[in-house]
């Protein structure tokens, strides 16, 4: 691990805090024990949640880096923190759906649990006050949120990540239902995958039982939320043994 000095907090989100370092191009990402849903309307604190999301996200980022995905993650510092490249985040969330559930079922009235013939990529405008509305690529272009080249790179990386994550989780008995990604640019202009990949940002279903192993357990008051996160980490960490 390279030497660095953690300095001032520069941002606090719903699930993480961001700190500057003595290197203006790097930041420390600290994971919180906070749960939020429905754009922050539902909140809770659960001890150990930050640790699990950090461990899971660090493991997944490491795997993606090994497979050539450009990302902001540098290394895991400890149980709660990561060292990352400082990026300016695009105001877009990118969602990939492999199976129908959640908002798309409500929005379009389609049946839940449909296996889609190909991955469905959706863009959402990052604004909690507006409820993170779904937008088209034209919205992103016209309002200057991203260029055509940005969108092309983002979609390619997103679909690559989808295939890599399915390959990672299928042998672990986990179905990758859908997930959310965020992207940013570093000081040199490189486009990088950012934020986190965890049960907070992915829907994972047990391939045998259909049990939810993600934040839906919190959203829907299904109970055993931390047990689901522990199960994902247990399966991920056991694959290297």
Question: Quick recap of the structure?
Answer:
With 241 residues, this protein is of the alpha+beta class. It has helices at 49-66, 103-108, 137-142, 148-169, 216-219, 225-238; strands at residues 6-12, 16-21, 26-31, 34-37, 42-45, 73-76, 81-85, 88-89, 92-99, 115-125, 134-135, 174-185, 191-194, 202-206.
Question: What layout of secondary structure does this protein have?
Answer:
Blueprint: E1 6-12, E2 16-21, E3 26-31, E4 34-37, E5 42-45, H1 49-66, E6 73-76, E7 81-85, E8 88-89, E9 92-99, H2 103-108, E10 115-125, E11 134-135, H3 137-142, H4 148-169, E12 174-185, E13 191-194, E14 202-206, H5 216-219, H6 225-238
Antiparallel strand pairs: 1-2, 2-3, 3-7, 4-5, 6-7, 8-12, 9-10, 9-12, 10-11, 12-13, 12-14
Describe what you observe in this structure:
- Helix 1 runs parallel beside helix 6 (225-238).
- The mean pLDDT is 96.
- With 241 residues, the chain is an alpha+beta fold.
- It has six helices and 14 strands.
- Strands 8, 9, 10, 11, 12, 13 and 14 form a seven-stranded antiparallel sheet that branches. It has a five-stranded antiparallel sheet with strand order 1-2-3-7-6. The protein has a two-stranded antiparallel sheet with strand order 4-5.
Class by helix and strand content? alpha+beta
Percent strand: 25-35%
Q: What is the oligomer described by this structure?
A: single chain
Q: Total helix count?
A: 6
**How far apart are the first and last residues' alpha carbons, in Å?**
23 Å
For the biggest sheet, the summary is:
7 strands, antiparallel
Low-pLDDT segments: none
Binned, the helix content reads 25-40%
Instruction: Please report the total strand number as a whole number.
Output: 14
**What is the C-alpha radius of gyration, as a whole number of Å?**
17 Å
Instruction: Report the principal-axis shape.
Output: globular
Mean pLDDT: 96
SSE succession: EEEEEHEEEEHEEHHEEEHH
